[in-house]
Amino acid sequence: MKKIICLLCMLVPAASCPLPAEEKPKAQAPQYELETVKIQKEDIVAKVNGRLIGASELYGRLVSAGEARKMLNLMIREVIVGDEAKKQQLSVTGPELQDAMAQMQKQFGTPTEFDEWMKNQGLSVDELKTQITTNLLEEKLVVKARKLEVTKKEIQEFFDNNKEKLSTPEQVRCRYILVKDKQKADDLALALRAGADFDIMAKAKSEDPANKENAGGDTGFFARGTVAKEIEDAAFALKIGEIGGPVKVKQGYYIMKMVEKKAAKPATFDKETQAHIKDYLLHSKISNTLSGYLTELESASKIEIY
């Protein structure tokens, strides 16, 4: 792979430069003094206590910290993968992208938490879609190039060796209200046991912001060992429709209502389980071979870094 490395330099107009008589000087953008450096108005990214920070200065710091090179490498990889996908006539469909986006969002408790993560990463929705599309194309490319597949024998062996892990433990689904004051919690529990509508009370009284987005504080199904011990003990002791609490936790006091229970189920070698195992084993093979494959693609590409 041929790489051409060039030095970047800043061109500063000379203080005096004779112009031909027939030409008139072009209008210049307003300039602002920053110590001995002049910054074009459109180059300003911040102003702090009268001190201007320019895009060139910001870029220089990013380069020094290695962050600019990381982003450049990511952009280079997107181009390489996109070009190879076109050659191999591979693409990502709308439903595939939507499903991958949905799977990512499921990793977060609420839409607000997902949005906050996006903000912290400095990602727009379009940028995230681009990254996900690139990842999906990488997987399709390496599967085709390395002829990756999962056999029925591999699926059966994995099932036989992991029956306990593949079994479904007992699970419960509750609604909850969180308040910080003990007296408020006692009053809410009393009202709910007297017949007050839990959904309405959760939206009106809960001090957990998630209740505003999550219908009536629905926890979804959870198993033992996945929530705080105090909540787990109280929840699994409830009967369907029963109100539990207040339960003292670090954040305050929980009042819960049992909505649904699922009994534990042993693992079965059905089509759904086989599909999950096949997907897991295929992605394991992809993970083990992807890095080497991408290195080969990069080596076969003409990359010029200035």
What would a concise description of this structure say?
With 306 residues, the protein is α+β, with helices and mostly antiparallel strands.
Can you offer a commentary on this structure?
- It is a single chain.
- The chain is α+β, with helices and mostly antiparallel strands.
- The protein is built from twelve helices and eight strands.
- The chain has helices at residues 55-65, 67-87, 94-105, 111-121, 125-146, 152-161, 163-166, 182-193, 198-205, 210-213, 229-236, 271-299, and strands at residues 31-34, 37-40, 44-48, 51-54, 171-179, 218-223, 243-249, 252-262.
- A four-stranded antiparallel sheet has the order 6-5-8-7, sandwiched between helices. A two-stranded antiparallel sheet has the order 1-2. A two-stranded antiparallel sheet has the order 3-4.
- The longest helix is centred in the C-terminal third of the chain and has 29 residues, at 271-299.
- Residues 1-23 and 29-37 have low confidence and may be disordered.
Which strands sit side by side, in order, in the main sheet? 6-5-8-7
Radius of gyration: 29 Å
Low-confidence stretches: 1-23, 29-37
Tell the overall outline.
flat
H/I helix tally: 12
Element-level helix/strand string: EEEEHHHHHHHEHHHEHEEH
Number of domains: 3
Roughly how many Å apart are the termini? 15 Å
- Beta-sheet strand percentage? 15-25%
Mean pLDDT: 84
Largest sheet: 4 strands, antiparallel
Q: Percent helix among the residues? A: 40-55%
SSE layout:
Blueprint: E1 31-34, E2 37-40, E3 44-48, E4 51-54, H1 55-65, H2 67-87, H3 94-105, H4 111-121, H5 125-146, H6 152-161, H7 163-166, E5 171-179, H8 182-193, H9 198-205, H10 210-213, E6 218-223, H11 229-236, E7 243-249, E8 252-262, H12 271-299
Helix pairs in contact: 2-5, 5-12, 6-12
